[in-house]
Amino acid sequence: MTPLPAWQRQGNTLRCPIQIHPSHRTLFEDYLRHRHRLLRAYPVGLLHASDVQYEDGCLYVLFPSEAELVSTLSPPEPPPGSFRRWRNDELLPALLTLLECHANQVAGFAPFIPVSGRWVPPVSWFLPRPPSALSDEERRQDLRHAQSWVRSQSRQASRHSDWDTRRVDSVCAALGSADAAAVERLIRAEQQEALREKRQAPDVPSFLHMLTEAEHLERLAQVYRYRLLRREESDRLGLDTRGQFILEVEPRWQDPHFPTLTRPTPHELWDTLLDESRTTPLLAVSQGLPNPLLHKHSPKAIARWIGVHEDQPWIYVRRDGVKVPATGYVHPHQPGDLALMGRKRAFTAFAGRHPLLAAHLRDSARPEPFTGNPQPRDVLEDAILATRGVFAVQGPPGTGKTHLATQVVRRFLAATPAGRVLICAKEHFALDHILRKLTQALDKDRISYRAFRSVSLARRRRGRAELETSFLGTTLVGQLAERAWAPESSGWTRFQASTFDQHDQRLLSLAEKAANLFFCTTMDAALLDMTGQTAFDLVIVEEAGKCYPSELLHTLCFGRTVLMIGDQRQLPPYQERQTREAVLAWQVTLDQARRRPEFRQALQARFGDTFLELETLAREHGPVSPAETAWLRPFEYLFDRLATRHRLEEQFRMEAPLSRLVGKVFYGRPFVHRKLASNPLEGVLPQELDVPLLWIDTPHMTLRPEATEDPEKRGARNNLYERDVILRYLRRLRPSRQVDLVILTPYNEQKRLLLDSRELREVCRSLTDSPFEQVVRTTDEYQGREAELTVLSLVRNNSQGARAWGFMTEPERLNVMFSRTRFRQVVVGCSAHINRHVNEAPHLHTVWKAYVEETADARCARIMSPEELDSHG
Fold first, then answer.
1. Are 4 and 122 in contact (CB under 8 A)?
2. Tens-place pLDDT, residues 196-251
3. What per-residue string of b and e applies to 339-364 under the rule 16 or more CB within 10 Å gives b?
4. Which of 20, 51, 254, 393 lies in disulfide reach of 259, CB 3.0 to 4.6 Å?
């Protein structure tokens, strides 16, 4: 029998001489790449190599550190009392991996021993499988080697009281018998025992688990206690009950387990749900206190929420044969969100135990302030492609993020045609944008590729017109189905005909697996299917700055090289402040459960496994620290600590005055301006309004009361005066061509006020073919987009002391608002209100000062009053 080839260690590298015929070298290198991807797909059982190379007749496998390899030659002593953990974390993963590798004709694990349940992959892992099965002797050698490792661990740990030596002896006996079937039976029995123990005492999850559950706690804040208005009450109040129930919500009710949660009013929740969906929302109705954190939640009754009273806490629910208890609880029922919650938990568990992130999650290194780029821009693509791990790029608005991603993929595929690339973004809009740019560039360069765009069926039904359809599964299945069978495969046609119902699914699977460019959002269900199954040579994640850990970290585990592009100076993850508060709320609740047995019992009854896992985390790990809570902004956390990072500083979108303003105010220094001169709005703007920066300065409400926000004093963030000024400005434009126009405001109430204006709708219709609902947008929903002409409505104008400006003065939100413009920007707002509240709105005040400075050159900026706007007309 020819002995299996063995590794030679040199520092952090393993090498083995392998003779490959020159005519087969390219094929062998492609196979190596495939096996490396498969190795990295293993979540447990095998050490992950950072790279695999074949040079000068030798196979080289590189690991992140020499210490990792050295530890596989001298195992650490098991800690006291750790048999259960050692069995679960080391013994079972190591032996199951050994058996699985043998089943796939991979052997030769000596002389290395597993560390943390992971073996060094043997040479045979990277070689094509031989035509014959493994010999008995090859299997025996590995099993005896594993037996020696188990015995050494047993001898070192036998003095510990909690170490079950009898069970270790039985494992050693099975391994010594070299009977693979006996070993597998024993290991499966140990697995079942571990599962039983886990049900009684869950494993300690990562602290990321707490951060993800804090995200979900928002759902608990949407639970309301109600009572059903009786018919006579409704009649007395003059309310129509035909075809509907009227539920009176208790505005002061607090959740007994989370009393500090900030609860939106029914009016606020109604508005939010309508903004998110084009249909009236569903409500889950229950008589007892519900658990909306259960992702497989099946409420006993579901009702259609059809309205809310203007000023009373009454909600209207369609009858439709629904039985609504006289008293009970309601909360939104959104099946899509329930599925998303399940995926977030699965992705968090995957990332929390993945070896790629282990060092980052353990490391509490202090952030390193960014002072300059480690490499010049002209070698950035080289630096990214040479990275084995994560490379973080901060991409301010207009600095060429998509161009960078396109160039990296273009160069990678040109050099590595058999490589596979995963491209993700948080939102479909950004993903389709990079898909179009990238495929156009590859087509132009005649670089071969197969692209696949993963989209859920629900998304296709809801917004197919908005999606790039060229690479959807349905399109590719049609293309594959049109192909004829090869002559030598004609015998399969009868089999294909007999399995016609499954044919489309097989073709869809083939389209997915054959793609070397795979596009999906970071929360796509396809990624869930890939965990533990698939890896990529290159992963690119756009919009990383907007992602929570549950939306980002799992994507970083899929690649040998990962390019993460984001901007921590723009909007953070959605409702991040509330999520931080939810982390504290969970920790207070868990502390009460520790001290009050009856409270703990109620929590377990309501929240089940969710509570038990967080209780285990609190007991074994302790409270989540501020450094761990900082992971709620994972892109920022990693960018501040990685050596492999870069900030893009060349501006290609904005005109020079706005480029200077955004660079100085939000990034500490001006961008290098690279935009080519153009005039897309020529003939549209009157000469006196044709400047890059125009501020229409509205009077303070103490001088002109009609300029106030919220004129009806109902607590709404809207401004009729600014709406009328915007209307007057747009009427000055000459609709000689289609205008790329957007009207932005920070507030939903102002957005609705603008959308309700018939005059504004008509004016916009004369300027652009875009739907009016896409012209008027909030700042938050417009991040990642841009327009030739942007009109900003600041709204705030009041006589308040504190909170005169509110959330809109956050620098990230201001940055997004002021950086959407490609050519001309118009601001409608009150500078006097800014100057009165400099301490509250320092960044907005800095923006105003920058505007004033730019007016020194009349070609750059201008400030005018609404009256001047009219006088020029």
1. yes
2. 877 766 777 899 999 999 999 999 999 999 999 998 888 888 888 888 999 999 98
3. bbbebbbbbbbbbbbbbbbeebbeee
4. 254
- What distance in Å separates the CA atoms of residue 492 and residue 631, rounded to the nearest whole number? 53
Are 661 and 655 spatial neighbours (Cβ–Cβ below 8 Å)?
A: no
DSSP 143-203: HHHHHHHHHHHHHHHTTSTT--HHHHHHHHHHHHHT-HHHHHHHHHHHHHHHHHHHHHSPP
Q: Is the pLDDT of residue 683 over 50?
A: yes
609 secondary structure, DSSP code: H
CB 562 within 8 A of CB 635: no
821-837 per-residue burial string, b: 16 or more CB within 10 A, e: under 16: bbbbbbbbbbbbbbebb
Mean pLDDT computed over 121-142: 86
Edge-first strand order for the sheet with 51-55 is 8-10, 13-17, 58-62, 51-55
Torsion, Cα of 152, 155, 159, 162 (10° steps): 60
In 616-668, the DSSP E strands lie at 645-647, 650-651
Residue 283 in tokens:
């409500």
How far are the Cα atoms of 210, 214, 295, 396 from residue 198, in angstroms, in the given order?
19, 23, 21, 46
Q: CA 703, 839, 743 angle in degrees (round to 5)?
A: 65
Annotate 487-555 with three-state secondary structure: HHHCCHHHHHHHCHHHHHHHHHHHHHHHCCEEEEECCCHHHHHHCCCCCEEEEEECCHHHCCHHHHHHH
**Nearest Cα to Cα of residue 818 among 698, 657, 708:** 657
Give dist(CA 299, CA 284) in Å, integer.
6
Short-list 829, 846, 838, 833, CA closest to 800: 833
Q: Are 607 and 293 in contact (CB under 8 A)?
A: yes
Confidence of residue 1 (pLDDT cuts 50, 70, 90): very low
- Supply the pTM of this predicted model: 0.91
In which residue are the tokens 């050099």 written? Answer: 415
Q: Are 779 and 811 in contact (CB under 8 A)?
A: no
Q: 183: buried, middle or exposed (CB in 10 Å: 19+, 13-18, 0-12)?
A: buried
